[in-house]
Amino acid sequence: MSGYGPECAELVRAARPGNYRLGMVLGSGLGQLADEIEDAVWVPYSKLSGFPVSSVSSHGSELVAGTLAGVPVVVLSGRAHYYEGGGADVMRTPVETLKALGCDTVLLTNAAGSLREDFAPGTPMLICDHINWSGLNPLIGEESDKRFLDMSAAYDPDLRARLRALAEEEKIPLGEGVYMWFSGPSFETPAEIRMAKALGADAVGMSTVPEVILARYLGLRVAAISTITNYGAGMQAHGLSHDETKSTALKAVDALKRLIRRFVKDLAND
Fold first, then answer.
1. What would the pLDDT profile of 247-262 be if each residue is shown by its tens digit?
2. ∠19-256-160 over CA atoms, to 5°?
3. What share of the chain is helix, strand, coil (3-state, %, to 5)?
4. Alpha carbon separation from 183 to 44, 79, 85, 120, 147 (Å, rounded)
5. In 29-45, which positions are buried (b, 16+ CB within 10 angstroms) versus exposed (e)?
6. Where in the sequence numbering do the catalytic residues fall?
7. Measured between alpha carbons, how far is 130 from 165 in angstroms, rounded to an integer?
8. Total Cβ atoms within 10 A of residue 13
C-alpha cells in the first residue's frame, strides 16, 4: 500500500459518510454515467493526494461517491494511463482508495479496438482474460512475496456469468473475449494487429490491465467491459483516430449504462 489510499478515503468519507460496495472506473465515453450517481459528492483528483490527473480529452479527473440503483458506489470518472507519464502503477492510489472505502468489487470499463469481424464498433465486450503485451507491471518494486500474484482467474467467473445473464435479459449483445494491453499512445500497426490475433487476443487497448493487477493484489473481485470503438489497424478502410474512439464510445453508452445499472442492482441482492 502506498499510504495515500486510507488518507484519501477519509477525505471522501468526511464529505459523504458511509461504506461503499462497488467501485467503478469509467473509460472513454462513459463519463456521463457519473452524472447519474444520486446523493453524490464530487471530489476532483487534484484534491486527493497521490491521484493522477488525466491529460486525455475523453477522460474526467473526479471521484464521485453516492448511490446508483440504491447501492453505495464510488466512481472514478476517468483514469490515467501508462503512456501519460511512464508509470505502470499510476492508478495505484485510486484503486487503494476504493479498497479503503469498503469496496469489495470493482467494475472497469474502457474503449478498445476489435480484432474480430463479429465484434463490431459500438458493441460491448466482456473481458474474460488478458495478455499483458507491454511487459510492464504495477507491482514491480514490491518487496514481499505477495507480488507473485495468481492471475489465473483475474476476471471473476461469477461476475462474468451475472453480466452475461443480465445482458441477455436486457437484449444487449455482449461478446466475450481476451483483451491485449499495448502501452500506447500510438495505435497498433497492422502487423501488430495480425500478431495479436495470432496470439489469441480479441481486442486491443491501452489501459485496464494495470488496474486489474492492482485490484487483485488488494483482494478485490474484478469485472471489466470494453466498448468496441473501431476495428484494429488494417481491418478497416480508414485509419485510426482518437476522435473516432470518442464518438463511437458515446454512441454505445446508453446500452452499457443500462447493463451497469442492472449489474449494480444484482450485486445488492448478495
1. 665 667 888 889 999 9
2. 70
3. 35, 25, 40
4. 26, 14, 11, 23, 21
5. bbbebbeebeebebbeb
6. 28, 59, 81, 83-84, 111, 206-207, 230, 242
7. 22
8. 17
Cis (ω within 30 of 0) for the bond into 94?
A: no
Task: Report the top-level CATH class of 4-268.
Answer: alpha beta
Residue 46 contacts by C-beta under 8 Å, 6 or more apart in sequence?
53, 61
Residue 181 has pLDDT above 70, yes or no: yes
- Tell me the per-residue pLDDT of 8-45, one tens digit each, with 9 for 90 and over: 999 999 999 988 999 999 987 677 888 899 999 999 99
CA distances from 36 to 68, 90, 252 (A): 7, 27, 16
Residue pair 119/242 in contact by the 8 Å Cβ criterion: no
> What are the grid coordinates assigned to 30, written together?
462513459
CA 242 to chain centre: 18
Q: For the segment 93-125, what is each residue's pLDDT rounded down to a tens digit?
A: 999 999 999 999 999 999 999 999 999 988 999
**Strand ranges (DSSP E) for the chain?**
22-26, 38-44, 62-68, 71-77, 105-114, 124-132, 175-181, 203-205, 221-231
Residues forming a β-bridge with 221? 105
Where exactly are the structural domains of the chain?
Answer: 4-268
Task: Tell me the C-alpha distance between 209 and 136, whole Å.
Answer: 10
Q: Across the chain, how many H-helices and E-strands are there?
A: 7, 9
